[in-house]
């Protein structure tokens, strides 16, 4: 399994005022080592969940402290980290940049398969593995929300990363497509870290983090984490 390490990782942003003066800490400090196959992250909107996830592949750099994936620092070895860590955004249409899913998968495979013919064959294999061949040549705008989400996952997983990070993957999905996505995630060989408001999905993890006001306030079993979170949000 992939090893993710955060050592005193803090993220701060500028606040209104003269440049270089005041900042506001939106996350941290965070000290964590994640080695489990499935980790879920829960918390209210604005709690810092998305910022935490973006630290894992270098989309956000720590203001202080360090983040590493399998020993690779996300700042100093950013490109190598991003080859190991795939990131799936909440809205898949932001990830599907080509007219069709087939073209998106082929685009993601350019580095691994410089030859166009090899790339086409590899893309066909990816689409078949995810059961998306019949949808591959449709406009991504004509796909349903669930189909887009699966296509976006096929795109980011085509290069066979070690870790898949998902930010609210079920927000735009109905229950049927949520169950379909969950079955797909359960069958992946990759380590998975996901942030979600879907507590049922969170309970399927091996370990759950609760984030509140930029701090990890609980780290442990999913059942206990959900109980802690519900008590937190039910406070007057």
Automatic annotation (TrEMBL):
Residues 4-235 form the ABC transporter domain. SUPFAM superfamilies: P-loop containing nucleoside triphosphate hydrolases. It comes from the Bacteria. PROSITE patterns: ABC_TRANSPORTER_1, ABC_TRANSPORTER_2. Keywords: ATP-binding, Nucleotide-binding, Transport. Signal peptide: none annotated. InterPro entries: AAA+_ATPase, ABC_transporter-like_ATP-bd, ABC_transporter-like_CS, ABC_transpr_CbiO/EcfA_su, ECF_ABC_transporter_ATP-bd, P-loop_NTPase. One of its GO terms (molecular function) is ATP binding. CDD domains: ABC_cobalt_CbiO_domain1 (cd03225). Belongs to the ABC transporter superfamily. PANTHER family: ENERGY-COUPLING FACTOR TRANSPORTER ATP-BINDING PROTEIN ECFA1, HEAVY METAL TRANSPORTER. This is ABC transporter ATP-binding protein.
